[in-house]
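ok, trying the design again with the full structure, not the truncated one.
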């Protein structure tokens, strides 16, 4: 009888242990909203599958939510109404606002095992007031794209200075063709201002009337007034791309990631060249792109899982695949060794080398409240003819009025 009782007790303990094991081994779910479309989405999706299959502690549950602006709108709605994910992949300038509003968690307590060969300046892009609120996923620098066939026919070389670019735009302009197509958006204008050694924010306040900002807009205004450039607002962005593809414009400014997206969708009737953005001595180029943010409500274990996924994504071979597909900058030195002949192309190598002069393009939470006023000023000047100084002064007044509220 005693032996039977012992067996019964042991059996009960075994059943209790078996019942507990699934709970102990349950994966921590990490809902993830991302913005990666073709051609980079295949690399990201493979990384998610690989991560989920490589360990049992965490499971990334991914969902594509559109481009940067679409995703930002959806996230803001979800933060107000509920249903926000744990992990969000968004544009860099969105991150400081998430941090300021308490919507993004500081990740400093979870950043163990970060590879020592990550480029320090790239890590700075996801810091807000000394704390780490994001994980860099894809960073790019601007490029000057040009129609190589048109340049060759006119005996032109890629411009290295802004005066050279103005001259080239004039020589390229014809009866039905503009030398340059430019967007009246915050990213493009900021790139020009930074290249001249300036900034759109100074001491936490808008600096839209700085001498570099005025100089940049006067240059663009001058080219438009002479008929050498075509200005397109954000709503007309697809037309700006079409202008270049249909040889209605022969130069344009965009991030390094723009060309592979176009090449994935269409074949071009001409050769596309790319060159570094003209830059004055002491000027910089913006490091722009996207980062991962862990949102409020996430548990410590979910935050650890998000960092673990990011570290998985940073594996050198995967990083090299990401760079080849998207033309984002490699985040690790070790990844460059895996890129093979990708950086042997002299034009691509020259554009990517701008990372040495790269700086975070926006780390000020208030920028998302101000940039609409600046984009309005750019459009009024470049499409409406308003004097650059006047347009920028109006934008500055409106931005300061918001700041004082």
């Amino acid at each position: 009888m005693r032996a039977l009782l012992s067996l019964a007790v042991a059996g009960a303990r075994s059943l209790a242990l078996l019942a507990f094991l699934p709970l102990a081994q349950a994966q921590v779910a990490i809902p993830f909203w991302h913005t990666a479309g073709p051609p980079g989405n295949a690399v990201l999706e493979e990384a998610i599958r690989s991560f989920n299959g490589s360990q049992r502690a965490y499971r990334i549950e991914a969902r594509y939510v559109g481009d940067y602006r679409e995703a930002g709108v959806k996230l803001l709605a979800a933060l107000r109404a509920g249903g926000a994910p744990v992990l969000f992949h968004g544009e860099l300038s969105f991150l400081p606002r998430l941090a300021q509003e308490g919507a993004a968690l500081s990740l400093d307590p979870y950043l163990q095992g970060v590879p020592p060969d990550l480029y320090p300046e790239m890590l700075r892009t996801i810091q807000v007031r000394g704390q780490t609120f994001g994980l860099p996923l894809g960073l790019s620098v601007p490029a000057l794209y040009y129609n190589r066939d048109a340049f060759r026919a006119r005996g032109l070389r890629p411009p290295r200075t802004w005066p050279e670019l103005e001259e080239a735009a004039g020589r390229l302009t014809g009866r039905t063709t503009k030398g340059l197509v430019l967007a009246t958006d915050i990213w493009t204008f900021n790139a020009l201002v930074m290249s001249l050694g300036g900034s759109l924010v100074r001491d936490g306040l808008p600096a839209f009337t700085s001498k570099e900002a005025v100089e940049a807009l006067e240059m663009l205004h001058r080219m438009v007034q002479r008929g050498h450039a075509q200005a397109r607002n954000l709503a007309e962005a697809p037309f700006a791309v079409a202008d270049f593809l249909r040889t209605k414009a022969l130069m344009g400014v965009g991030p390094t990631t723009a060309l592979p997206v176009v090449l994935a969708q269409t074949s071009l009737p001409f050769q596309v060249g790319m060159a570094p953005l003209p830059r004055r001595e002491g000027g910089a180029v913006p490091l722009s792109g996207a980062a991962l943010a862990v949102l409020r409500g996430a548990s410590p274990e979910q935050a650890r899982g998000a960092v673990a996924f990011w570290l998985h994504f940073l594996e050198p071979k995967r990083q090299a695949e990401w760079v080849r597909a998207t033309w984002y900058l490699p985040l690790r030195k070790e990844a460059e060794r895996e890129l093979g002949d990708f950086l042997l192309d002299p034009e691509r190598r020259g554009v990517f080398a701008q990372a040495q002069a790269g700086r975070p393009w926006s780390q000020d939470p208030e920028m998302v409240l101000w940039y609409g006023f600046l984009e309005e000023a750019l459009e009024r000047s470049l499409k409406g003819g308003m004097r650059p100084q006047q347009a920028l002064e109006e934008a500055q007044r409106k931005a300061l009025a918001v700041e004082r509220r």
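Keeping the full-length input from now on. The radius of gyration is 25 Å.
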